[in-house]
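Researcher: If convenient, please comment on what follows.
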Amino acid sequence: MTDLLFDITFWFAAPFWALMILAPGWRRTSAAVASPLICLPSLVVYAVLILPDFSGFAKELINPSLLGLQAVLGSDVGAAAAWAHFVAFDLFLGRWIFHDSRARGLPALLISPLLALTILFAPVGVLLYLITRSAWAAQSRLGRQRGGHRRRAQFY
């Protein structure tokens, strides 16, 4: 059962990733990823995996130690639960990047590779997105300032 839950976890998220990366401009993509509930199937898998030994997981998560976490996450159930956790939260972050980048007018060709990176290494993908977002905003401000100076110069 654990193997099956591990295997299906990513397949719950894959269609949403495919839409955000490969079809970001398609009108149905925004609707498909509009709700954070797209993460729900992976979160349910996580709950199904940890609830039978909730006290064992809680013990290690409330007062974590490296050895204790290694023991919990080193089991089949622990590894599958960690995978479901990663998939759910990576998708949540990817969804946020998708919506935030569209609201800010960042080009999909710039964002799609960052989303692909976020699937594999979410902290790195999010960090690079935040850097990209800041650089894009700075570039936009600079462009507006230059344009504004030109207009003022024309009136003097």
